């Protein structure tokens, strides 16, 4: 699949601001600074569709982008930024939960984890949350240009173990810097969008 068109639609604060036209949705979530904005910009071929971190942990909005006039990308707020308070975390949980509950348009969630590190407790909590709501999950290991191939393979095993995935589960890999992994991710997205 090729993304020919990507248009920002709305930064929603409340549920009643979400689009309600029944186009399918693919959501993106991950720890702040994991490379989520960069990944979205890379796959849509736009340098600045999504802002790259200026103040991590500050965006508390659900951003909708119309893709190819066919489906939405939904950019969910990042989690796990070290300096946020308990009340900020509660606000974040509320926003995510509000989006996840009964979102029938939502066909898959792309969960981004940093390829260099073991998934954090927040990553594991997010994974369990998505499972609980029974959405399809695509796991993407980001910033693979920062480590060797050898280290990457080791880390992918660690990531699989942390989430309790089968040894043959295919974690997608991505580098926005080197534009790697784009085709595989877009193929997965195409499957999701074309399924029913
Ligand atoms: N080397 C490298 N750096 C990246 C990559 N993706 C993102 N970054 C950098 O990581 C930082 C956070 O990226 P951003 O996309 O804003 O992360 P977000 O907070 O998850 O949206 C920025 O400084 C990016 O330039 C990547 O694939 N490779
Ligand atoms: Mg971002």
From TrEMBL:
EngB-type G domain location: 22-195
SUPFAM superfamilies membership: P-loop containing nucleoside triphosphate hydrolases (SSF52540)
Entry's Gene Ontology BP terms: division septum assembly
Molecular-function GO terms, alphabetical: GTP binding; metal ion binding
Cofactor list: Mg(2+)
Keywords: Cell cycle, Cell division, GTP-binding, Magnesium, Metal-binding, Nucleotide-binding, Septation
A GO term from the CC aspect: cytosol
Superkingdom in the source lineage: Bacteria
Keyword check for Metal-binding: yes
Pfam families xref list: MMR_HSR1
Purpose: Necessary for normal cell division and for the maintenance of normal septation.
Family affiliation: Belongs to the TRAFAC class TrmE-Era-EngA-EngB-Septin-like GTPase superfamily. EngB GTPase family.
NCBIfam families: GTPase_YsxC (TIGR03598)
Name of the protein in question: Probable GTP-binding protein EngB
Gene name for this UniProt entry: engB
